Amino acid sequence: MKAILRRLRILEASLATTRNEQGLSLADVLRELQCRRVAQERGVPYEEVLREHIIEHQAFWAHYVGDGTIAGTLRYARRRRLEAAAAAQNKAQSL
Description:
- This protein is mainly α.
- It has 2 domains: about 25-60, no CATH class; about 65-95.
- It has 4 helices and no strands.
- The longest helix is centred in the last third of the chain and has 25 residues, at about 70-95.
- The N and C termini lie far apart (about 65 Å).
């Protein structure tokens, strides 16, 4: 039992989110870089692009009911894309 608990602690430590000296995770740093690049390309303030990104992120995860695995997330994203395409096609046909 001790060996199993030791292995679990090692796995948890290796998978834990690491943060830099500013307290940002790797995902936060990458998000910031991407938003700064998009803001520079569009010529708009960084805060506006970051706000849009956060709103899109929250909208994406609002109705997620999967199991949290990579496969579940990919299935959810694909289903959302297909539903959006079907809605756009229905809207175009009704015009």
